């Protein structure tokens, strides 16, 4: 099932269905990490880093090997996404200044900021791949839309 735009519609539909009516952000993060990790073979690590203090991210729900426990906004791809409030699409992590190698096998990465209904940054979604240039602009658009749909809309 490993296509660059795998079963995007069915994956996002399943995530929406599983998260419908859920107001706990951690539960939604765990569900999303699990679903994305198992849907795409090129996604070798999928997880969230939560904003737990000003300028600080801490590991949240994830799938894959161990992640870094704490990442300051000043460091790495996750820190850049949090600091700038915009997605970081990195085809070659070795070329990213200040990349934090939580896993030595990671070759490319995409990190999407996650905002709540009030527009506050609550986390970043971090996806790593052991393949270079594994992520596309279509992936970016899908993930940004998914994060907005699940986290930035007021609970019903």
UniProtKB/TrEMBL annotation:
One cellular-component annotation, GO: cytosol
Superkingdom assignment: Bacteria
GO molecular-function terms, A-Z: L-methionine-(R)-S-oxide reductase activity
Cited InterPro entries: GAF, GAF-like_dom_sf, Phosphatase_reg/MetRdx
Domain GAF: 23-150
Similarity annotation: Belongs to the free Met sulfoxide reductase family.
Cited PANTHER family: FREE METHIONINE-R-SULFOXIDE REDUCTASE, GAF/PUTATIVE CYTOSKELETAL PROTEIN
Protein name: GAF domain-containing protein
Origin species: Halovulum dunhuangense
């Amino acid at each position: 099932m490993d296509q660059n735009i795998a079963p995007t519609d069915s994956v996002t539909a399943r995530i929406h269905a599983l998260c419908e009516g859920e107001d706990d952000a951690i539960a939604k993060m765990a569900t999303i990490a699990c679903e994305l990790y198992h849907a795409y073979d090129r996604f070798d690590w999928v997880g969230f880093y939560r904003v737990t203090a000003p300028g600080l991210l801490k590991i949240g729900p994830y799938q894959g090997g161990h992640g870094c426990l704490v990442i300051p906004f000043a460091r790495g791809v996750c820190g850049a996404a949090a600091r700038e409030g915009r997605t970081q699409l990195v085809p070659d992590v070795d070329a990213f200044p200040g990349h934090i190698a939580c896993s030595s096998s990671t070759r490319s990465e995409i990190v999407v900021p996650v905002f709540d209904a009030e527009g506050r940054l609550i986390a970043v979604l971090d996806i790593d791949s052991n393949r270079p240039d594994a992520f596309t602009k279509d992936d970016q658009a899908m993930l940004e839309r998914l994060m907005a749909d699940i986290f930035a809309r007021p609970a019903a």
